[in-house]
């Protein structure tokens, strides 16, 4: 079902997405390997099935793991007719990601995000804000913005992995999503650019055939300075904090 059919003006976030994110943030934000460690496939499928039968279902009552819910959330976006990040904007995003100057690069990406369909924009902002919160717990869950982007960019962008030309740009695709996660306050809440030790730089072109999932292992980077982010997250207009 198209994303536009799953939301309303009063409810801009699909209820299934909202329930999954709330469950994850309430019960498993510090789970090691969150979004990278697969959950039980049967449980994952059953979550969506039970929701389809009863939209008021309480995920906590299902006795499923946070990894199963995380998998169900990723599957939701993978099953949409079109990717959350529109195909039409992929070329612009890739070109912007190559801009050497960091500030200029971020502003260029911000202008492109404004071109998203309003429905896509609202949901993308919601998901990226959630992933930013996950990354703030990276000292415990080991999921940095880098690792989260590796797990999520194929789901959000839905690339053609059979296209040999595409395979040479996989690292750039990943860096785009990493930048959004790392700098979500700048992109979506008029915040300042967050200076961190691993602020994303334009990536080198990856070798054809090199799969992103195997490129970067779980790693523990320097702290993300959450004090620069947290005060603004408390005023999140979506009410998900």
UniProtKB/TrEMBL annotation:
Residues 1-188 form the Rho-GAP domain. Gene3D superfamilies: Rho GTPase activation protein. It comes from the Eukaryota. GO terms for biological process: signal transduction. InterPro entries: Rho-GAP_domain (IPR051978), Rho_GTPase_activation_prot (IPR008936), RhoGAP_dom (IPR000198). SMART domains: RhoGAP (SM00324). Pfam families: RhoGAP. This is Rho GTPase activating protein 5. It comes from Mus musculus.
